[in-house]
From TrEMBL:
The chain crosses the membrane at residues 50-67, 87-108, 114-132, 139-159, 171-191, 318-340, 346-365, 377-395, 415-435. It comes from Aquilegia coerulea (Rocky mountain columbine). This is Nucleobase-ascorbate transporter 1. It is a multi-pass membrane protein. GO terms for molecular function: transmembrane transporter activity.
Amino acid sequence: MLGTTVMIPSALVPLMGGSDGDKIRVIQTLLFVSGINTLLQALFGTRLPAVVGGSFAYIIPIIYIIGDSSLQRITEPHERFLQTMRAIQGAMITSSSLQIVLGYSQVWGLFSRFFSPLGMAPVVGLVGLGLLDRGFLLVGNCVEIGIPMLLIVILLSQYLKHVRLVRTVPIFERFTVLICVPIIWVYAHILTSAGAYRNTHVITQLSCRTDRARLIYAAPWFKVPYPLQWGKPTFNAGHTFAMMSAVLVSTIESTGAYKAASRLAIATPPPAYVLSRGIGWQGIGIMLDGLCGSLTGSTVSVENVGLLGLTRVGSRRVVQFSAGIMIFFSIFGKFGALFASIPVPIFAALYCVLFGLVASVGLSFLQFTNMNSMRNLFITGLSLFLGISVPQYFNQFSLTSRHGPVQTHSGWFNAFLNTIFSSPPTVGLIVAVVLDNTIEVEKSKKDRGMPWWAKFRTFRGDNRNEEFYTLPFNLNRFFPPT
Protein backbone atom coordinates (compact mmCIF):
# COMPACT_ATOMS: atom_id res chain seq x y z
CA MET A 1 0.00 0.00 0.00
CA LEU A 2 3.06 2.26 -0.03
CA GLY A 3 2.21 3.09 -3.67
CA THR A 4 -1.09 4.77 -2.78
CA THR A 5 0.36 6.29 0.39
CA VAL A 6 3.09 8.03 -1.62
CA MET A 7 1.15 8.82 -4.82
CA ILE A 8 -1.68 10.86 -3.28
CA PRO A 9 0.43 13.33 -1.23
CA SER A 10 2.99 13.58 -4.08
CA ALA A 11 0.22 14.70 -6.44
CA LEU A 12 -1.70 17.03 -4.11
CA VAL A 13 0.76 18.64 -1.67
CA PRO A 14 2.57 20.71 -4.38
CA LEU A 15 -0.83 22.03 -5.59
CA MET A 16 -1.48 23.24 -2.05
CA GLY A 17 1.85 25.10 -1.87
CA GLY A 18 3.57 22.52 0.33
CA SER A 19 7.30 21.77 0.38
CA ASP A 20 9.14 18.42 0.31
CA GLY A 21 9.15 18.48 4.11
CA ASP A 22 5.36 18.96 4.14
CA LYS A 23 4.99 16.09 1.68
CA ILE A 24 6.96 13.71 3.92
CA ARG A 25 4.94 14.71 6.99
CA VAL A 26 1.70 14.05 5.11
CA ILE A 27 3.00 10.63 3.97
CA GLN A 28 3.97 9.84 7.58
CA THR A 29 0.55 10.94 8.85
CA LEU A 30 -1.32 8.94 6.21
CA LEU A 31 0.67 5.79 7.02
CA PHE A 32 0.23 6.36 10.78
CA VAL A 33 -3.55 6.82 10.62
CA SER A 34 -3.88 3.92 8.15
CA GLY A 35 -2.17 1.67 10.70
CA ILE A 36 -4.56 2.77 13.46
CA ASN A 37 -7.63 2.40 11.20
CA THR A 38 -6.50 -1.06 10.07
CA LEU A 39 -6.10 -2.13 13.69
CA LEU A 40 -9.55 -0.79 14.63
CA GLN A 41 -11.20 -2.46 11.62
CA ALA A 42 -9.54 -5.84 12.26
CA LEU A 43 -10.40 -5.75 15.99
CA PHE A 44 -13.83 -4.13 16.16
CA GLY A 45 -15.09 -3.56 12.59
CA THR A 46 -15.80 -6.33 10.12
CA ARG A 47 -12.95 -8.40 11.68
CA LEU A 48 -11.89 -9.36 8.14
CA PRO A 49 -8.16 -9.36 7.21
CA ALA A 50 -8.61 -6.09 5.32
CA VAL A 51 -6.05 -3.27 5.35
CA VAL A 52 -7.43 0.30 5.46
CA GLY A 53 -5.51 2.98 3.55
CA GLY A 54 -5.76 6.22 1.61
CA SER A 55 -8.36 6.55 -1.15
CA PHE A 56 -8.16 8.15 -4.60
CA ALA A 57 -11.93 8.79 -4.36
CA TYR A 58 -11.22 11.98 -2.38
CA ILE A 59 -9.07 13.63 -5.05
CA ILE A 60 -11.87 15.51 -6.88
CA PRO A 61 -13.33 17.11 -3.69
CA ILE A 62 -9.81 17.93 -2.47
CA ILE A 63 -8.93 19.62 -5.77
CA TYR A 64 -12.20 21.58 -5.50
CA ILE A 65 -11.15 22.78 -2.02
CA ILE A 66 -7.61 23.60 -3.23
CA GLY A 67 -9.11 25.74 -6.00
CA ASP A 68 -11.29 27.75 -3.60
CA SER A 69 -10.77 31.43 -4.44
CA SER A 70 -10.35 32.41 -0.76
CA LEU A 71 -7.41 29.98 -0.47
CA GLN A 72 -5.89 30.82 -3.84
CA ARG A 73 -5.60 34.47 -2.79
CA ILE A 74 -3.01 33.51 -0.14
CA THR A 75 0.35 34.37 -1.72
CA GLU A 76 2.76 32.78 0.77
CA PRO A 77 3.01 29.07 -0.26
CA HIS A 78 3.42 27.48 3.19
CA GLU A 79 0.59 29.55 4.67
CA ARG A 80 -1.64 28.53 1.74
CA PHE A 81 -0.71 24.90 2.37
CA LEU A 82 -1.67 25.16 6.05
CA GLN A 83 -4.97 26.95 5.38
CA THR A 84 -5.89 24.46 2.63
CA MET A 85 -5.05 21.50 4.87
CA ARG A 86 -7.23 22.93 7.64
CA ALA A 87 -10.13 23.36 5.20
CA ILE A 88 -9.72 19.74 4.03
CA GLN A 89 -9.59 18.57 7.64
CA GLY A 90 -12.81 20.41 8.52
CA ALA A 91 -14.63 18.95 5.51
CA MET A 92 -13.42 15.45 6.34
CA ILE A 93 -14.38 15.62 10.01
CA THR A 94 -17.94 16.76 9.29
CA SER A 95 -18.51 14.49 6.27
CA SER A 96 -17.36 11.42 8.26
CA SER A 97 -20.69 11.66 10.09
CA LEU A 98 -22.35 10.26 6.93
CA GLN A 99 -20.56 6.91 7.27
CA ILE A 100 -20.97 6.87 11.05
CA VAL A 101 -24.73 7.35 10.71
CA LEU A 102 -25.07 4.85 7.82
CA GLY A 103 -23.09 2.28 9.81
CA TYR A 104 -24.28 2.52 13.40
CA SER A 105 -27.93 3.17 12.48
CA GLN A 106 -27.85 -0.11 10.47
CA VAL A 107 -29.17 1.79 7.41
CA TRP A 108 -26.37 0.41 5.22
CA GLY A 109 -27.17 -3.11 6.42
CA LEU A 110 -30.83 -2.60 5.55
CA PHE A 111 -29.85 -1.31 2.11
CA SER A 112 -27.77 -4.46 1.58
CA ARG A 113 -31.08 -6.42 1.44
CA PHE A 114 -31.21 -5.29 -2.18
CA PHE A 115 -27.86 -6.93 -2.96
CA SER A 116 -27.78 -10.30 -4.71
CA PRO A 117 -24.89 -12.34 -6.16
CA LEU A 118 -25.91 -11.03 -9.59
CA GLY A 119 -25.92 -7.41 -8.37
CA MET A 120 -22.65 -7.67 -6.45
CA ALA A 121 -20.66 -9.51 -9.14
CA PRO A 122 -20.14 -6.40 -11.33
CA VAL A 123 -19.65 -4.15 -8.28
CA VAL A 124 -16.85 -6.30 -6.80
CA GLY A 125 -15.46 -6.87 -10.29
CA LEU A 126 -15.30 -3.12 -10.89
CA VAL A 127 -13.47 -2.58 -7.59
CA GLY A 128 -10.56 -4.23 -9.40
CA LEU A 129 -11.26 -3.40 -13.04
CA GLY A 130 -11.99 0.23 -12.21
CA LEU A 131 -8.32 0.74 -11.31
CA LEU A 132 -7.08 0.04 -14.85
CA ASP A 133 -5.33 3.42 -15.04
CA ARG A 134 -3.05 2.38 -12.17
CA GLY A 135 -1.93 -0.78 -13.96
CA PHE A 136 -0.09 -1.14 -17.24
CA LEU A 137 -0.57 2.55 -18.05
CA LEU A 138 1.99 3.31 -15.33
CA VAL A 139 4.09 0.24 -16.13
CA GLY A 140 4.47 1.63 -19.65
CA ASN A 141 6.14 4.78 -18.30
CA CYS A 142 9.19 2.67 -17.48
CA VAL A 143 8.90 -0.71 -19.23
CA GLU A 144 12.49 -1.76 -18.42
CA ILE A 145 11.50 -1.81 -14.72
CA GLY A 146 7.76 -2.54 -14.87
CA ILE A 147 7.75 -5.54 -17.20
CA PRO A 148 10.54 -7.46 -15.39
CA MET A 149 8.63 -6.83 -12.15
CA LEU A 150 5.39 -8.18 -13.64
CA LEU A 151 7.13 -11.27 -15.07
CA ILE A 152 8.99 -12.12 -11.86
CA VAL A 153 5.79 -11.79 -9.78
CA ILE A 154 3.99 -14.23 -12.10
CA LEU A 155 6.99 -16.58 -12.12
CA LEU A 156 7.39 -16.78 -8.34
CA SER A 157 3.70 -16.75 -7.36
CA GLN A 158 2.46 -19.25 -9.97
CA TYR A 159 5.23 -21.33 -11.54
CA LEU A 160 7.50 -21.68 -8.49
CA LYS A 161 4.86 -21.64 -5.74
CA HIS A 162 5.36 -25.34 -4.97
CA VAL A 163 9.15 -25.03 -4.67
CA ARG A 164 10.05 -25.16 -0.98
CA LEU A 165 13.53 -24.12 0.12
CA VAL A 166 12.32 -24.73 3.67
CA ARG A 167 10.29 -27.91 3.97
CA THR A 168 7.24 -26.49 5.75
CA VAL A 169 7.10 -22.98 4.24
CA PRO A 170 6.17 -22.19 0.60
CA ILE A 171 8.53 -19.20 0.51
CA PHE A 172 7.91 -18.10 -3.08
CA GLU A 173 4.13 -18.17 -2.63
CA ARG A 174 4.05 -16.44 0.76
CA PHE A 175 6.76 -13.82 0.18
CA THR A 176 6.42 -13.01 -3.52
CA VAL A 177 6.16 -9.26 -2.90
CA LEU A 178 8.97 -9.12 -0.34
CA ILE A 179 11.29 -10.97 -2.74
CA CYS A 180 10.35 -9.18 -5.98
CA VAL A 181 10.29 -5.55 -4.81
CA PRO A 182 13.89 -5.43 -3.43
CA ILE A 183 15.28 -7.24 -6.49
CA ILE A 184 13.71 -4.84 -9.01
CA TRP A 185 14.32 -1.85 -6.72
CA VAL A 186 18.08 -2.62 -6.66
CA TYR A 187 18.00 -3.15 -10.44
CA ALA A 188 16.31 0.26 -10.88
CA HIS A 189 18.90 1.89 -8.61
CA ILE A 190 21.73 0.40 -10.69
CA LEU A 191 20.15 1.86 -13.85
CA THR A 192 19.77 5.24 -12.14
CA SER A 193 23.36 5.27 -10.84
CA ALA A 194 24.69 4.24 -14.26
CA GLY A 195 23.06 7.33 -15.80
CA ALA A 196 20.48 5.47 -17.88
CA TYR A 197 17.94 8.26 -17.37
CA ARG A 198 20.23 11.28 -17.50
CA ASN A 199 18.83 12.78 -20.72
CA THR A 200 15.40 11.13 -20.89
CA HIS A 201 11.92 12.67 -20.82
CA VAL A 202 10.70 14.20 -17.55
CA ILE A 203 7.94 11.57 -17.14
CA THR A 204 10.49 8.78 -17.63
CA GLN A 205 12.78 10.29 -15.01
CA LEU A 206 9.95 10.69 -12.50
CA SER A 207 8.83 7.11 -13.10
CA CYS A 208 12.20 5.35 -13.21
CA ARG A 209 14.70 7.16 -11.01
CA THR A 210 15.30 6.02 -7.43
CA ASP A 211 17.41 8.98 -6.23
CA ARG A 212 15.02 10.96 -4.06
CA ALA A 213 17.73 12.61 -1.95
CA ARG A 214 15.62 15.72 -1.33
CA LEU A 215 12.83 13.68 0.22
CA ILE A 216 15.19 11.72 2.47
CA TYR A 217 16.99 14.93 3.51
CA ALA A 218 13.69 16.70 4.27
CA ALA A 219 12.35 13.83 6.38
CA PRO A 220 12.84 13.96 10.16
CA TRP A 221 14.40 10.97 11.89
CA PHE A 222 11.62 10.76 14.46
CA LYS A 223 8.21 12.40 14.34
CA VAL A 224 4.93 11.20 15.85
CA PRO A 225 1.86 12.49 13.96
CA TYR A 226 -0.79 13.86 16.29
CA PRO A 227 -4.28 15.42 16.07
CA LEU A 228 -4.49 19.07 14.95
CA GLN A 229 -0.78 19.12 14.03
CA TRP A 230 -1.55 21.53 11.14
CA GLY A 231 -3.65 23.84 13.30
CA LYS A 232 -7.36 24.29 14.01
CA PRO A 233 -9.61 22.90 11.20
CA THR A 234 -11.89 25.32 9.38
CA PHE A 235 -15.42 24.42 8.33
CA ASN A 236 -17.32 25.31 5.17
CA ALA A 237 -20.69 23.87 4.12
CA GLY A 238 -19.78 23.66 0.42
CA HIS A 239 -16.55 21.82 1.19
CA THR A 240 -18.43 19.38 3.43
CA PHE A 241 -21.08 18.53 0.81
CA ALA A 242 -18.37 17.99 -1.81
CA MET A 243 -16.43 15.71 0.55
CA MET A 244 -19.57 13.69 1.34
CA SER A 245 -19.57 12.38 -2.23
CA ALA A 246 -16.14 10.82 -1.63
CA VAL A 247 -17.34 9.33 1.67
CA LEU A 248 -20.30 7.75 -0.16
CA VAL A 249 -18.02 6.40 -2.90
CA SER A 250 -15.59 4.95 -0.34
CA THR A 251 -18.56 3.26 1.38
CA ILE A 252 -19.54 1.49 -1.85
CA GLU A 253 -15.94 0.61 -2.77
CA SER A 254 -15.29 -0.75 0.72
CA THR A 255 -18.46 -2.85 0.60
CA GLY A 256 -17.23 -4.49 -2.60
CA ALA A 257 -13.77 -4.94 -1.07
CA TYR A 258 -15.23 -6.55 2.07
CA LYS A 259 -17.15 -9.05 -0.08
CA ALA A 260 -13.96 -9.89 -2.00
CA ALA A 261 -11.87 -10.15 1.19
CA SER A 262 -14.36 -12.53 2.81
CA ARG A 263 -14.28 -14.78 -0.24
CA LEU A 264 -10.48 -14.81 -0.50
CA ALA A 265 -10.15 -15.42 3.26
CA ILE A 266 -12.57 -18.39 2.97
CA ALA A 267 -15.09 -16.67 5.26
CA THR A 268 -18.85 -16.36 4.85
CA PRO A 269 -20.11 -13.15 3.17
CA PRO A 270 -20.34 -10.50 5.93
CA PRO A 271 -23.91 -10.31 7.30
CA ALA A 272 -25.78 -7.00 7.20
CA TYR A 273 -24.97 -6.26 10.86
CA VAL A 274 -21.23 -6.85 10.34
CA LEU A 275 -21.20 -4.78 7.15
CA SER A 276 -22.84 -1.87 8.98
CA ARG A 277 -20.41 -2.23 11.87
CA GLY A 278 -17.46 -2.07 9.49
CA ILE A 279 -18.80 1.03 7.73
CA GLY A 280 -19.41 2.71 11.10
CA TRP A 281 -15.79 2.11 12.16
CA GLN A 282 -14.62 3.32 8.77
CA GLY A 283 -16.48 6.58 9.46
CA ILE A 284 -14.57 6.90 12.74
CA GLY A 285 -11.40 6.26 10.72
CA ILE A 286 -12.22 9.13 8.35
CA MET A 287 -12.78 11.36 11.38
CA LEU A 288 -9.29 10.39 12.60
CA ASP A 289 -7.94 11.19 9.11
CA GLY A 290 -9.48 14.64 9.41
CA LEU A 291 -8.24 15.26 12.95
CA CYS A 292 -4.65 14.23 12.18
CA GLY A 293 -4.55 15.81 8.70
CA SER A 294 -3.72 12.81 6.50
CA LEU A 295 -4.96 14.80 3.44
CA THR A 296 -7.19 12.00 2.10
CA GLY A 297 -9.85 9.77 3.63
CA SER A 298 -9.76 6.03 4.21
CA THR A 299 -11.08 3.04 2.34
CA VAL A 300 -10.28 -0.66 2.19
CA SER A 301 -6.99 -1.19 0.34
CA VAL A 302 -7.86 -3.09 -2.86
CA GLU A 303 -4.24 -4.12 -3.44
CA ASN A 304 -4.14 -5.81 -0.04
CA VAL A 305 -7.38 -7.65 -0.77
CA GLY A 306 -5.70 -9.01 -3.91
CA LEU A 307 -2.68 -9.93 -1.77
CA LEU A 308 -4.90 -12.32 0.23
CA GLY A 309 -5.39 -14.32 -2.96
CA LEU A 310 -1.76 -14.08 -4.09
CA THR A 311 -0.22 -15.24 -0.78
CA ARG A 312 -3.16 -17.30 0.50
CA VAL A 313 -2.69 -15.72 3.92
CA GLY A 314 -6.09 -14.72 5.30
CA SER A 315 -5.30 -14.32 9.00
CA ARG A 316 -6.51 -11.21 10.76
CA ARG A 317 -3.57 -11.52 13.18
CA VAL A 318 -1.18 -11.01 10.27
CA VAL A 319 -3.06 -7.82 9.35
CA GLN A 320 -3.04 -6.61 12.95
CA PHE A 321 0.73 -7.16 13.14
CA SER A 322 1.13 -5.38 9.80
CA ALA A 323 -0.78 -2.41 11.21
CA GLY A 324 1.87 -2.19 13.94
CA ILE A 325 4.61 -2.18 11.28
CA MET A 326 2.81 0.66 9.46
CA ILE A 327 2.69 2.72 12.67
CA PHE A 328 6.39 1.99 13.35
CA PHE A 329 7.55 3.11 9.89
CA SER A 330 5.35 6.21 10.02
CA ILE A 331 7.10 7.42 13.16
CA PHE A 332 10.59 7.05 11.67
CA GLY A 333 10.45 9.52 8.79
CA LYS A 334 13.71 8.52 7.07
CA PHE A 335 12.31 5.03 6.48
CA GLY A 336 9.17 6.45 4.88
CA ALA A 337 11.23 8.70 2.63
CA LEU A 338 13.42 5.75 1.63
CA PHE A 339 10.36 3.73 0.63
CA ALA A 340 9.13 6.76 -1.33
CA SER A 341 12.09 6.22 -3.65
CA ILE A 342 10.58 2.96 -4.97
CA PRO A 343 9.67 3.69 -8.61
CA VAL A 344 5.93 3.78 -9.31
CA PRO A 345 6.13 1.15 -12.13
CA ILE A 346 7.14 -1.44 -9.50
CA PHE A 347 3.86 -0.82 -7.67
CA ALA A 348 1.95 -0.68 -10.96
CA ALA A 349 3.25 -4.12 -12.01
CA LEU A 350 2.03 -5.52 -8.68
CA TYR A 351 -1.33 -3.83 -9.18
CA CYS A 352 -1.79 -5.60 -12.53
CA VAL A 353 -1.82 -8.89 -10.61
CA LEU A 354 -3.56 -7.81 -7.39
CA PHE A 355 -6.37 -5.76 -8.96
CA GLY A 356 -6.92 -8.53 -11.50
CA LEU A 357 -7.40 -11.04 -8.67
CA VAL A 358 -10.04 -8.83 -7.03
CA ALA A 359 -11.86 -8.44 -10.36
CA SER A 360 -11.93 -12.20 -10.85
CA VAL A 361 -13.35 -12.69 -7.33
CA GLY A 362 -16.24 -10.42 -8.30
CA LEU A 363 -16.92 -12.42 -11.45
CA SER A 364 -16.83 -15.65 -9.39
CA PHE A 365 -20.14 -14.61 -7.75
CA LEU A 366 -21.80 -15.34 -11.08
CA GLN A 367 -21.43 -19.08 -10.40
CA PHE A 368 -24.38 -18.78 -8.00
CA THR A 369 -26.61 -17.28 -10.70
CA ASN A 370 -28.15 -18.62 -13.89
CA MET A 371 -26.07 -17.13 -16.68
CA ASN A 372 -28.29 -18.80 -19.29
CA SER A 373 -30.88 -16.15 -18.41
CA MET A 374 -30.98 -13.27 -20.90
CA ARG A 375 -32.10 -10.99 -18.04
CA ASN A 376 -28.94 -11.78 -16.08
CA LEU A 377 -26.72 -11.41 -19.13
CA PHE A 378 -28.26 -8.00 -19.86
CA ILE A 379 -27.78 -6.69 -16.28
CA THR A 380 -24.22 -8.02 -15.93
CA GLY A 381 -23.05 -6.79 -19.32
CA LEU A 382 -24.62 -3.32 -19.04
CA SER A 383 -23.41 -2.68 -15.49
CA LEU A 384 -19.84 -3.79 -16.31
CA PHE A 385 -19.71 -1.78 -19.52
CA LEU A 386 -21.20 1.41 -18.06
CA GLY A 387 -19.13 0.95 -14.89
CA ILE A 388 -15.97 1.23 -17.00
CA SER A 389 -17.04 3.63 -19.75
CA VAL A 390 -18.92 6.29 -17.72
CA PRO A 391 -15.99 6.97 -15.30
CA GLN A 392 -13.62 6.94 -18.27
CA TYR A 393 -15.71 9.69 -19.89
CA PHE A 394 -15.69 11.74 -16.68
CA ASN A 395 -11.95 11.27 -16.13
CA GLN A 396 -11.00 12.10 -19.74
CA PHE A 397 -13.20 15.20 -19.64
CA SER A 398 -11.42 16.29 -16.44
CA LEU A 399 -7.99 15.81 -18.07
CA THR A 400 -8.83 17.86 -21.17
CA SER A 401 -10.75 20.69 -19.50
CA ARG A 402 -9.51 20.51 -15.86
CA HIS A 403 -13.18 20.35 -14.86
CA GLY A 404 -15.62 17.44 -14.88
CA PRO A 405 -18.57 17.20 -17.29
CA VAL A 406 -20.93 18.58 -14.61
CA GLN A 407 -20.42 22.35 -14.72
CA THR A 408 -23.05 24.40 -12.89
CA HIS A 409 -22.68 27.60 -10.90
CA SER A 410 -22.40 25.55 -7.69
CA GLY A 411 -18.86 24.26 -7.23
CA TRP A 412 -19.67 21.74 -4.49
CA PHE A 413 -22.51 20.26 -6.58
CA ASN A 414 -20.11 19.84 -9.53
CA ALA A 415 -17.54 18.12 -7.30
CA PHE A 416 -20.26 15.90 -5.79
CA LEU A 417 -21.58 14.52 -9.09
CA ASN A 418 -18.17 14.37 -10.77
CA THR A 419 -16.89 12.26 -7.84
CA ILE A 420 -19.88 9.90 -7.86
CA PHE A 421 -19.71 9.19 -11.60
CA SER A 422 -15.91 8.92 -11.67
CA SER A 423 -16.09 5.79 -9.49
CA PRO A 424 -16.56 2.50 -11.42
CA PRO A 425 -17.95 0.49 -8.45
CA THR A 426 -20.45 3.29 -7.68
CA VAL A 427 -21.72 3.46 -11.27
CA GLY A 428 -21.79 -0.35 -11.38
CA LEU A 429 -23.79 -0.54 -8.16
CA ILE A 430 -26.32 2.06 -9.32
CA VAL A 431 -26.91 0.24 -12.62
CA ALA A 432 -26.75 -3.37 -11.34
CA VAL A 433 -28.79 -2.97 -8.13
CA VAL A 434 -31.49 -0.81 -9.73
CA LEU A 435 -31.96 -3.14 -12.70
CA ASP A 436 -31.71 -6.29 -10.56
CA ASN A 437 -34.47 -5.05 -8.24
CA THR A 438 -36.83 -3.74 -10.93
CA ILE A 439 -36.72 -6.27 -13.81
CA GLU A 440 -38.81 -9.45 -13.27
CA VAL A 441 -37.84 -9.59 -9.61
CA GLU A 442 -40.29 -12.24 -8.34
CA LYS A 443 -39.77 -14.55 -11.31
CA SER A 444 -35.99 -14.42 -11.07
CA LYS A 445 -35.18 -15.08 -7.39
CA LYS A 446 -33.46 -18.37 -8.15
CA ASP A 447 -31.72 -17.00 -11.25
CA ARG A 448 -30.33 -14.09 -9.21
CA GLY A 449 -28.79 -16.50 -6.66
CA MET A 450 -30.99 -15.35 -3.77
CA PRO A 451 -31.59 -18.84 -2.22
CA TRP A 452 -27.82 -19.18 -1.66
CA TRP A 453 -27.35 -15.52 -0.59
CA ALA A 454 -30.31 -15.10 1.80
CA LYS A 455 -28.94 -17.27 4.60
CA PHE A 456 -25.90 -14.99 4.99
CA ARG A 457 -27.95 -11.82 5.58
CA THR A 458 -28.34 -12.37 9.32
CA PHE A 459 -25.66 -13.05 11.91
CA ARG A 460 -27.44 -16.24 13.08
CA GLY A 461 -28.08 -17.41 9.52
CA ASP A 462 -24.86 -19.45 9.40
CA ASN A 463 -23.00 -21.07 12.32
CA ARG A 464 -19.64 -20.01 10.90
CA ASN A 465 -20.47 -16.31 11.28
CA GLU A 466 -19.77 -16.50 15.00
CA GLU A 467 -16.25 -17.81 14.32
CA PHE A 468 -15.47 -15.13 11.72
CA TYR A 469 -17.23 -12.01 13.00
CA THR A 470 -17.70 -12.20 16.80
CA LEU A 471 -16.15 -9.22 18.61
CA PRO A 472 -13.08 -9.86 20.83
CA PHE A 473 -12.90 -9.53 24.63
CA ASN A 474 -16.47 -10.91 24.93
CA LEU A 475 -17.84 -7.58 23.64
CA ASN A 476 -20.78 -9.30 21.95
CA ARG A 477 -22.41 -9.37 25.41
CA PHE A 478 -22.65 -5.57 25.29
CA PHE A 479 -23.11 -5.21 21.51
CA PRO A 480 -25.26 -8.19 20.49
CA PRO A 481 -25.73 -8.83 16.75
CA THR A 482 -29.05 -7.48 15.48
